[in-house]
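Self-study notes.
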Amino acid sequence: MIKQDSKVFNGFRHIFLALLSLVLLVPFYLVVVNVFKSKEKIVSNPMSLPGSGFTFDNLINVAVSPSFKIMRAYGNSFLITAVSIAFIVLFATMMSYVIARSSSRLMKAIYYVLLTGLMIPPQVLLLPLVKLLTKVNLMFTFQGLIFYNIAWYLPFSVFIYTGFIRTISTQLDESAKMEGAGPFKIFWRIIFPLLHPATASVVIFLFLWIWNDFINPLIILGTKGGYTVTTGIFMAVGKYNANWDQVFSLMFLASFPVLIMYLFMQRFIISGLTDGAIKG
């Protein structure tokens, strides 16, 4: 009886997850099918397939549009995302190693203080952030946005890395110490190479969040410091623009790097999170 109830429950769960997946795929479907259709067909039937009216004109027009230079936006977004992730991984791995290997109350307190950063809504920080960046002359600069990304996403990264490092046996550290290795050498030569699954998970999440970020680049960069993919789309489309062929093309070009990144690294996401969750 219990097995039968379990099978029924699993069946309903699979049906629910399948329906939920279909609902979540609707926006993606709309973007993909409409980016290859003319404006008239998009307006008349946005859910239909391109069919005989399949065209690349929308993508070509957007790629050479003077109002939104897609290559410049790509370059800015890649620069901000790559530099932010590199420094976050560097700082988070070293901090997490110290926290995970320490048994002092001070380190535990520092760890919990860091975790409180996960509970703070980002909107709360916008006003003091603008005042701080203005005071240090980093407002409307890429450096200011990169520093913000490092500070904001560091708690999440430390949380993932600390849990993962705690699953690594301390006997590796002790064996290395017996061979005369110091803490710095132990970390870079032994611990850091073992963090690949956790690093893959952290990198994919940070890439998604930083690349898709809209509010922070819009406020920190403004109209003076350049634009990313997301803010560039906002500026190009405008408030009263209804060119749906342009809108869907911009959305497709903005999400394409994220899709490629996810397809290449999806197998690392679950393993990196679940391995760290055992003792995290």
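Second protein, same conventions, sequence then structure:
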Amino acid sequence: MFSTPEVVTLGLIVLLAIVVGLIGYEKYSLSREDPHARERARRAVLVAYGKMGDATVLDLRDELLIYTYAVRGVEYTASQDVSRLKEHLPTDWHVLGGHALVRYDARNPANSIVLAEKWSGLRANQPGA
């Protein structure tokens, strides 16, 4: 059958495979985060550290806010799902062509928001505007 060194080697290989599998499963479990929590964290980082610029709201389709902005001569068109931020939407603001503020990541300007739990770049209508 198997010699003693072969049995020991086979046992060590099986043990190593089990340990690697357990470590991999633990890392996978810890890395799985609720997507809504991950999005809230992204918005919080942009509110705290993001650069601010001017934006134009193009449309609000269903619960998707579509806007455009420029950073260093590059124009970006982006959208943000505001379905979980409805209570933070101003009641009186322009949708099409409305001016807004955007917060974006200076290292990745395509990463941007116009609305968060503790900040809004949507400007309410001003009388006579």
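Instructor comment on the second fold: The domain at 35-120 is CATH 2.40.50 (OB fold (Dihydrolipoamide Acetyltransferase, E2P)).
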